[in-house]
Amino acid sequence: MSTRQVRLTVNGHEYSREVEIRKLLTDFLRDDLGLTGTQVGCEHGVCGACTILWNGEAVRSCLVFAVQVNGADLKTVEGLAPNPTELHPLQQKFWEHHGLQCGFCTPGILLTAEALLKEKPDPTEEDIRQWISGNLCRCTGYQNIVTAIREAAKAMAAK
Amino acid sequence: MKPANFQYYDPTTIEEVVDLLSQFGDQARPLAGGQSLVPLMNFRLLRPAHLIDLNGVRDLSYLRVENGDLRIGATTRQRQLERSTDVANGWPLLGEATGYIGHMQIRNRGTVGGSLAHAFPSAELPVAMVTLGASLVLSGKARQRTVSAEDFFLSTMTTVLEPDELLTEIRVPESSANTGWSYQEVSRRHGDFALAGSAALVRLDPTGNIDHARLTVTGVTPIRVRRAEEIVTGQKPTEALFREAVRKAMDGLEQDSDIHASAEYRRSACEALGERTLRKAAERAANSSKGQPQ
Hints:
- The complex is a heterodimer of chains A (159) and B (294).
- With 159 residues, chain A is of the alpha+beta class.
- Chain A has helices at 25-32, 89-96, 106-119, 125-131, 143-158, and strands spanning 3-10, 13-20, 51-54, 57-60, 73-75.
- Chain A has a five-stranded mixed beta sheet, with helices on one face.
- The longest helix of chain A has 16 residues, at 143-158.
- Chain B is 36% helix and 24% strand.
- In chain B, the strands form four sheets. In chain B, strands 4-5-10-6-7 form a five-stranded antiparallel beta sheet. Chain B has a four-stranded antiparallel beta sheet with strand order 11-12-13-14. A three-stranded parallel beta sheet of chain B has the order 1-3-2, covered by helices on one side.
- In chain B, helix 5 runs antiparallel to helix 8 (124-131).
- The longest helix of chain B is centred in the C-terminal third of the chain and has 27 residues, at 263-289.
- Chain B starts with 6 loop residues before the first strand and ends in a 5-residue tail after the last helix.
- The A-B interface holds A 1-2, 4, 21-24, 27, 43-45, 48, 51, 57-60, 62-65, 67-68, 112, 115, 130-131, 133-134 and B 1-8, 10, 34-35, 38-39, 42-43, 53, 55, 79, 102-106, 108-109, 189-191.
């Protein structure tokens, strides 16, 4: 079993760990860093439950090896809320508009939505649906997710 | 499942990569975006003993216009292609095709070279590159060769790449003025693997006749539909012409049958898409010669 040292920043915190080379980034975040918000869904890149932000871009963490993120700047769902007592507008709107049921897809969708709103602060419904098409939800039927993202966009623009 | 064990290398130069490939041959796999390779490794369908990470090789990632041609470094992300104004202005077929690749998250990591080297039958970039007459630069130890996109693909997920060769650059020649384009595909849901796909380029001469046409559809490898190109060249672009051309040209078109679609369905879809892309390309060519926006 060969290992490598990995140093990276996640949600603004620096981490340094020795990691098995074949370990997927999803498992590294969950097992080694204790950040269990990122979910393990399909492990072949189709469901989006493992989505995180790498330098602000949404990527599938199940298709990245932990050793590849040496020196990287990552964001997981744990890094969304600005502080321990305040929700990110996306989280607030998902709560208000019932944009989740079991919550399994939610971390991936929240981060995907954050990336969308950075690129398009005023997305149309079509934009939102296209953007989240890489994230599967088995519970909600997507309507409340789309509403929540639209409302969050309005709230963020109003600030 | 989790991938099997492997040795990992993160070189910073093309030379190092090629050295490693010539050392380990088919026991090694280059890792670019990982959007096709890592799923295969996670399923253990592939168990490379040596994984060569290309992401640290800066010289492999670039997108520039040189003497009118588009030069794409192999590890350029698909998302860069999608966002590039150079590509949108000079090679819009490429931009349109790239938008069909999977989902945004896939395109953020997936690379141009990776998609071509992987040579998956339903992939968009192989079809687009064949249509555009692109050429691929393959680099081995102390040798380099250039292969046309059409000659690059041999069979399902099989290319002319030797085990010690790396695809390093893709060159797309300048598109001539008044050339319309279209990429279209059919899939069960947006972002799914295409069941059939088609790319067309049509150029009109000043009298409004087609003086240049290219048509390619998906198959085990991209299928250049030369017969259709011949039929439409020199003719006025009409719906009837295109319908006739694809009907004649795709009679007996070879397509795969699998759990997603029968060969018959794929053939029928290729015909429909062939017609639609020719029609759209002709429309865009006509608009461009009138100076109208696309």
